[in-house]
Amino acid sequence: MERYSVLFSLYKKENPAYLRLAFESMLKQTARPDEIVVVEDGPLTDELYAVVREYQTNYPELFNVVVSEKNVGLGLALNLGLNACKNELVARMDTDDISKPERCEKQLRRFEEKPELAIVGAWVDEFYDEPTQTVSTRAVPTESDAIYCFAKRRSAFNHPTVMYRKSKVLEVGGYSDLRRNQDVDLFGRMLYSGCKAENIGESLLFFRANADLAKRRRSWENTRSYIETIEKFWKMGYASRWDYLVVAVAQTGMFLMPIKLQHWIYKKFLRAKKKRTA
């Protein structure tokens, strides 16, 4: 199988225990990575430094730490890490999620079967406290044409599940300097440029849907950023004016409604309910 890198971005507010679980989930992949790149986005806490140094010491041939002296935000930090990755295939991973053991092997096989693909993502199982108690699944379109249409209004990928071709990301300029929705912006530009993408139609990652996530969804910064991203798609010819208007109204409405109603809509209409534990 083709070799691949794993790309993390880490900043000071992350949880050291969650980081350890994320690292371990990548070390336990049935197709083990050739490299794990960790970008330290600005100064970290002593606890986070301790976890990173522990894994550097135990796996010196695997862990490559890239240091940014100041916090530059997720998009620019990922660009730093991406440029440091030595492999063409790069698996994104967040510091508070847990990849299932077969995740990367299944993605590598998809790239082997369809070398024309630039992005391969997957569904996620969402949980609050324990990954064994999942509460919902975020299912996204699996076929290339459906993904192309879906991404004009909504995020067509679960960012921490994505494996992509480094060269294709760099061809469109990498991640933009945005504080929110960097992935939506990047993948929209990649799709519009002609990149082919698929999602594997099963959950390959446990996604931590905690209170912090709800706060980010509720923020006006996130709402405005998403609307501006779709407006950008409209102006460059990817999305239509109607796509932009629908997103602007829907996102503003979600922001203005009570948090309990917003949460109910996510559970009722935007997520598949889990009937059993994972």
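(the above was protein one; protein two follows)
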Amino acid sequence: MFIEAPELSSYSGVRHAFFTRQGGVSEGVYASLNGGLGSSDDPARVAENRRRMAAQLGLPAEALVSVHQVHSAEAVIVDEPFPQTARPRADGMATNRPGIALAVTTADCGPVLFADPEAGVVGAAHAGWRGARSGILEGTLQAMERLGARRGRIVAVLGPTISQAAYEVGPDFAAAFRDEAEAPRFFRPSGKPGHAQFDLPGYIGWRLARAGIGAFADLALCTYGDEERFFSFRRTTHRGEPDYGRLISAIALTP
């Protein structure tokens, strides 16, 4: 049902989980642990799935908080759970309040969980290529620093993300990175003329290293290639399916 990273599970004051698609009540293309509030799944099923995730973290359902993700560089500080109908438009969160689980939803984009256990601050970011390119990783670090974290102590872990082998992009995509001197290293030729394979996990790791964090780990799990465990927007698109489930990755300070 969920995957833990040794880099985070070693801290007694932090709980986290990269939830898979297994262990829920949703059906069809959403089977079975769909946590996406923005999907067209039965809201009651999504609510039950999210309740199960919160329970795995030892928290009540309302403690699992998510933002309205918009592929931005905006990160917010969470002092208390907010209603699902009043979710801020953002792609990163930080908190120093025990008992709040910061949850990001993904289905190919990169879920990044952060912790500075010494300061008692955690964070979470939804990092697709747009968000990573515009600065969501750095924005989340800055939000954590406002709460007392020090980036040289911060540990960040990247959960299930589409791999370079599965991420073919066109010339317009590559052009969006033309002002970054290091960008070419994250592209390699594909079998289609004018196209390339983009290394989103590598790009995320590079951005975080450049930002000066203490440690970074990539779980190296591909959402596209592992249908049994993960939802994938690109896989759904290739199949012409009407919708797709969303994975949840969450982190909390223990109450």
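Reviewer note on protein two: The mean pLDDT is 97.
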